[in-house]
Design brief:
The protein has 192 residues and is α/β, with parallel strands linked by helices. The chain contains eight helices and five strands.
């Protein structure tokens, strides 16, 4: 890692925290890894620019435990890629499925929005993949990349409605009726 890249990512984290609950946690392993010490030092130096944000620093192993025990104690987490990949997969347990977890890789000029589960090639051609994380990733794109908050809110609202009404794929059906990927997608498109 180079300091300028950490600064860019941390700035996104601080901006997210400002728009949300004004809480930011820098997740690292600064007691062991030099790269984590650089992350921590860089974020600490940026704190003065965001006095409204409550910043904490926690080791990744502690966050892995606390995230499952007390998920609502966190709002915005910033961390390096390896730790982020692990923590997002773990956090999917809280929501009930990886199929509900959108993600964003925010570049300087270009960004990538996708579900945390990636392409899920095992489901190719079977009409079984949960499309909700992909749809929520699109909401994140509308909001983050294009500044289209109303559209993002509409997308999230229809996803929440599909969950409330049980229009879900097998991974979320909990023994109840489940729908195919295309059926969930058609329902979302009709009801947005």
């Amino acid at each position: 890692y180079q300091r300028f890249e950490i600064q860019r990512l941390a700035k996104k984290g601080f901006e997210s925290a400002m728009a949300r609950g004004k809480k930011l946690c820098c997740v690292d392993k600064a007691n062991v890894l030099e790269s984590s010490r650089l992350w921590r030092e860089t974020v600490q130096a940026m704190e003065k620019d965001y006095p409204e944000v409550e910043v904490s620093y926690e080791f990744v192993d502690a966050v892995a435990m606390r995230l499952v025990q007390w998920p609502s104690s966190y709002d915005v987490l910033i961390t390096e890629n390896l730790f982020g990949d692990i923590l997002t997969d773990e956090a999917s347990v809280i929501s009930g499925s990886m199929g509900l977890m959108p993600s964003a890789s925010l570049g300087e000029k270009t960004s990538l929005f996708e579900p945390i589960h990636g392409s899920y090639p095992q489901a190719a051609g079977k009409d079984i993949a949960n499309p909700l994380a992909t749809v929520l990733s699109a909401a994140m794109m509308f909001e983050t990349a294009f500044g289209l908050q109303q559209e993002a809110d509409a997308i999230r609202a229809v996803v929440n409605r599909s969950l409330d009404e049980g229009v879900v794929t097998e991974d979320l059906a909990d023994g109840g009726k489940s729908y195919k990927t295309s059926e969930v997608g058609d329902w979302l498109a009709k009801n947005v």
